[in-house]
Amino acid sequence: MSRFLAAFVRNKVFANTATVIILVAGAVALFSMVRELFPEFSLDLITVDVPYPGADPEEVEEGICRKIEEALDSVEGIRRYSTVSMESVGHASIEVYESYDVDDVYDRVRNAVDAISTWPRDAEKPIISELTIRREVIYLALFGDLPERTLKEWAETTKDELQRIPGLSQVSVMGTRDYEIGVEVSETRLREYGLTFSEVASAVRRGSLNLPAGVIRTRGQEIRLRTVGRKYTAADFAKIVVLAAPGGEVITLDRIADIRDEFTEDPIYATFNGRPCVLVACYKTAEEDAVAIAKAVRGYIARKKDALPQGASVAVWSDRAQLIEDRLALLRTNGIQGLIIVLILLWLLMDVRLSFWVALGIPISFAGALAFMYLHGDTLNMLSLFGLIMVLGMLVDDAIVVGEAIFWRRQRGEPPFQAAVKGVTDVAMPVIGAIATTILAFIPLMFVGGTMGKFIGIIPVAVISCLAFSLWEALFLLPAHLSNLPDLSESLSNSELRRHPLKRLRWAFSDGMDWFIQRVYAPFVSKAVRYRYVTLSVAVCAALLTWGLVNGGIIKFETFTRFDGNELRASIEFPRGTPIAVTEQAIQQTRDALDRLAAKTQTKSGKPLVRNVYAVVGQEGEGGGGSHLGQIRVELLDTAERGIHSEDIGVAWQKEVGDVPGALRQSFSGMMGGGPGGSAIEIWLRGEDMDMLLAVAARLKDRLRDYDGVFQVSDDYRPGKSEVRINLKPE
């Protein structure tokens, strides 16, 4: 092994070249890697949605969901599936085994569902898709005392302009209704003209079509024929001919119906700090950079602020890229501080040249890890940066051991090359063993299954690659850099070298450490070895004490620590069909409770607790809409300025609101959890009798609420709208 290591020690050109290549590769990777909040990964979930307009949940269960279940029973690769019957749509969620390729199972599911030939007559074509997560980056709140149509048009214009920004392709508008042309037919006029509703509907369909009519081929060119008749405005629909009399008189649609350019019937009310608002959400794809998107959007706002409509304002809302930038700044700060501390301590204890080359191991290890992660297809996100920050304190341990061994031999007068070779040979195996045990501790994290495994899989990659490059640098590059240390044996007794103030400080510190080792540490170790059974007993007692603290609940266990973010959200859900006024009143009750809580909460800096409040009634986030849904999203004062954990504020907010009568669900949560989404604990109930399941679920929820620390207990059963059932008599 000595000859092998000596070859690297002798080849200084290789050491210098490798150092430069690693540092350059790391810098290139740092500026090329995609930056995002969390790593992208597949959920291994496939969804099937079959629209069945006008059908109630029982009809959907009988005509849609049971047929899907029968088709899925024979599909290979499905771990489990569940179906949900809702009004007008049947939904199936399919979980794929980890050992199977999602695309292959997706094709099998599609073939099985497409083979169903007994759908109800009015059922629409099945929609089959792989479930993916859209990562939001930044929101723009467009608000002001403006009409809904003006806000909508402004938001659509903003969306189009944002999508023209390079590197930003996913933009959507939230908090507003879709456009709709409403045709309200008068029953009296239908009777007057002898028409039926179906005849009018058929005339509208025929009158709004674009139809191809073939091609005319001439000697000079081909001419395509096309009938253009699609209507886009109320004025166009008004001219549609519904009935033509033999005498040449025509009855147009506007004579028998009221036609309006308007929005869909289900209202959506969104406000930002109490003013009407529309939200523009910017998302990222797997290849797009969150930090670059956020910077581009901020630049867009700066350019547009002087050209806003009268009475309008725009504000940045929920900037997730700021979290990534803060974590990168933390890594940069910790790295610089680590370099300075290593340089100072090693200079005080050993040699200035040695301290420089040992400290250089930190940027080399980081650069090598970043280059490997980039080639591996990984990104810079909260988890990979967490792994890099966590391993920061371990990176110079092996280099310090190797450098100290070379320094010790050089102090005793051995030639530089011989000291470097023998020094690294003396400690190579202990150093390899120390780093290998740490690597082995992180390897199991690479084999964690399920969504959790995909979520945390980047952490061991970052840690292991850092440690591997640190070990390689300490064994093969550092000895070459230290193979020409000056003669240190004279400095042990030469008083001339100790007259300079800095050198006196250095030697005083070094002599003090030597005194501590010889007079305190060495005697203690000697006694610990002599009374080895006492030492073993103390170690066993420490292990038992640690085990008792954890299993006794004194030291709490949680998979991911509580994330103290700057955003809270409160959602409320009523039964379907609930009037919009009821939901609006509940949202106002929740908003009033927030105002009361903010007024009596004293922050660390004395500034107001709440910065911005976005409230929407008739919609919940990006998901579905309806008059039974509502949500409030709150931007809080920064963590350092408020001095109160966001989760504590959320719990206090929930207590201030209390129970809202008639609500199926009230949830209060932070901007994001510390891990994958979902409830902390889920209990599944299965059975054939729905009434019995509901009764058991109610008793179980009441029992769970008695446990300390358990809150927001809810189930996923949602009753449908009230209905009137008519059974015809034989007559």
Secondary structure elements and pairings:
Blueprint: H1 2-10, H2 12-32, E1 45-51, H3 57-72, E2 78-86, E3 89-96, H4 102-114, E4 127-130, E5 135-144, H5 148-163, E6 170-174, E7 179-185, H6 187-193, H7 197-206, E8 210-217, E9 222-228, H8 234-238, E10 241-244, E11 250-252, E12 257-263, E13 269-272, E14 275-284, H9 290-304, E15 312-317, H10 321-349, H11 352-359, H12 361-376, H13 382-391, H14 397-411, H15 416-442, H16 450-456, H17 458-481, H18 501-530, H19 532-551, E16 567-573, H20 580-600, E17 610-619, E18 625-636, H21 639-642, H22 646-657, E19 665-670, H23 690-704
Helix pairs in contact: 1-15, 1-17, 2-12, 2-17, 9-10, 10-11, 10-13, 12-17, 13-17, 14-15, 14-17, 15-17, 20-22
- Given helix and strand content, the structural type is alpha+beta
Rg measurement, Å = 35 Å
Overall geometric form: elongated
**Roughly what is the average pLDDT, rounded to an integer?**
85
Distance between the termini: 103 Å
In words, what does this structure look like?
This protein is an alpha+beta fold. 48% of the residues lie in helices and 18% in strands. It has 23 helices and 19 strands. Strands 5, 6, 13, 14, 15, 16, 17, 18 and 19 form a nine-stranded antiparallel beta sheet that branches. The chain has a four-stranded antiparallel beta sheet with strand order 2-3-1-4. A two-stranded antiparallel sheet has the order 7-12. A hairpin with a 2-residue loop joins strand 13 and strand 14 (275-284).
